[in-house]
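pls design
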């Protein structure tokens, strides 16, 4: 349609960029069809759970104060539990982010003398301080919880030979991170997670298997809780919030474990009975309703970008044809200018703050300057189109999200337009 090309031109994207996009998109039809099918299944799963639990307009009402009998909150937790096929779930705006949800799941179910084992190598950066790998105030280590880790093999697979050696009498929780996060290993499929859980349970049947599910929700038709995980944990400003949840995290799993999380989140004795939902419920429900198709859009964007930049000769992780288990895409530019131009393009395509220019800066917690592009409705939301790149070799940019496929596509084309403008790519 020529009006589309014209509109792209009006927004500053030249024809050669649009045409390359068209060419690449035409090769992805089959993969996009598969993604749509997964989204269709997951959409049914969510709607079915909402119907089964009789979600009604009363669920969206504002609750304040202690939050006793907060109907919307209690029902939403049943909806989550049904979608994840778990006995129970804790879904709260008082869980401030993914790290908090993970810290909560761990601290609620570990006691002094217990050991936590990661069988998926080094966990996500922020968990280093939660666990106490990097000494930190309030860490599990300070409370007498020990930690050990089984690194992944060189090809990124589980080390089945060394896992048994790491599981002892005091091993209480085994943690598995589904997404690679911002590491270079591959992300795990739910099936692979199921294999390692079965393996661990054979060694020690009463061990609690927890999966960090961040960025993985709704990418497949099954979740780690369908293959034996006792707890799955994630953030509502990623996939399951569908772009609408303004805050929050969830933990879904066995009733006893979730009950413990409730006591840890609020207070012993009070548990899940308190915690007013403060008017966020409509966004939590509607976001969860949208999450399957939002995740599909983000996934299409990641695959589209992988194929465009692979075609231009860059190293992309995952590559253009690999199967996907999360929504993160990395592109290695080999020089800072590439990372910067890419991020400026993503920013320029945003619905919010498109007029600001991101610059690399010394962000706390990072060992190099970092450039971040985000023009999001929810601050820091990474289910919305966003990108960041540490200014250090191999000069890779990590990007993720896109609430709609046309917007994800616009962002990627704009990133390429900026690379062409800066003379880094020629078309
Ligand atoms: C994002 C993420 C987290 C932490 O979530 P925050 O909301 O940023 O605290 C943990 N693990 C993985 C794999 C993630 O992607």
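designed seq:
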């Amino acid at each position: 349609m020529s009006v589309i090309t014209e509109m792209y031109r009006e927004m500053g994207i030249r024809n050669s960029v649009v045409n390359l996009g068209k060419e690449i998109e035409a090769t992805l039809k089959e993969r996009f069809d598969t993604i749509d099918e997964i989204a269709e299944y997951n959409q049914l799963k969510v709607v079915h759970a909402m119907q089964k639990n009789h979600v009604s307009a009363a669920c969206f009402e504002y609750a304040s104060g202690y939050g006793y009998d907060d109907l919307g909150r209690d029902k939403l937790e049943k909806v989550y539990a049904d979608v994840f096929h778990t006995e129970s779930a804790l879904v709260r705006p008082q869980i401030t982010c993914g790290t908090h949800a993970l810290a909560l799941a761990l601290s609620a179910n570990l006691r002094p003398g217990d050991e936590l084992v990661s069988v998926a190598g080094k966990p996500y950066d922020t968990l280093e301080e939660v666990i106490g790998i990097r000494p930190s105030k309030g860490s599990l280590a300070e409370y007498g919880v020990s930690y050990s880790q089984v690194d992944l093999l060189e090809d990124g697979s589980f080390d089945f030979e060394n896992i048994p050696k790491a599981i002892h009498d005091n091993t209480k929780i085994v943690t598995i991170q589904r997404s690679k996060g911002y590491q270079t290993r591959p992300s795990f499929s739910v099936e692979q997670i199921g294999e390692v859980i079965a393996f661990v349970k054979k060694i020690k049947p009463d061990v609690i298997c927890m999966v960090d599910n961040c960025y993985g929700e709704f990418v497949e038709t099954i979740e780690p809780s369908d293959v034996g995980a006792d707890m799955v944990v994630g953030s509502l400003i990623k996939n399951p919030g569908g772009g609408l949840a303004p805050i929050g995290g969830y933990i879904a799993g066995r009733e006893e474990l979730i009950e413990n999380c409730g006591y840890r989140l609020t207070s012993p004795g009070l548990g899940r009975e308190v915690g007013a939902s403060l008017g966020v419920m409509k966004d939590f429900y509607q976001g969860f309703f949208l999450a399957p198709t939002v995740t599909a859009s983000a996934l299409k964007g990641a695959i589209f970008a992988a194929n465009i930049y692979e075609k231009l000769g860059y190293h992309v992780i995952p590559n253009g044809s690999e199967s996907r288990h999360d929504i993160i895409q990395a592109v290695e530019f080999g020089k800072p200018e590439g990372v910067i131009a890419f991020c400026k393009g993503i920013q320029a395509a945003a619905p919010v703050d498109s007029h600001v220019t991101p610059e690399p800066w010394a962000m706390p917690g990072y060992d190099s300057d970092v450039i971040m592009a985000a023009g999001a409705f929810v601050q820091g939301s990474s289910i919305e189109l966003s990108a960041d790149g540490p200014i250090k070799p191999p000069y890779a940019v990590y990007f993720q999200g896109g609430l709609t496929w046309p917007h994800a596509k616009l962002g990627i084309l704009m990133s390429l337009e900026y690379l062409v403008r800066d003379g880094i790519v020629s078309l």
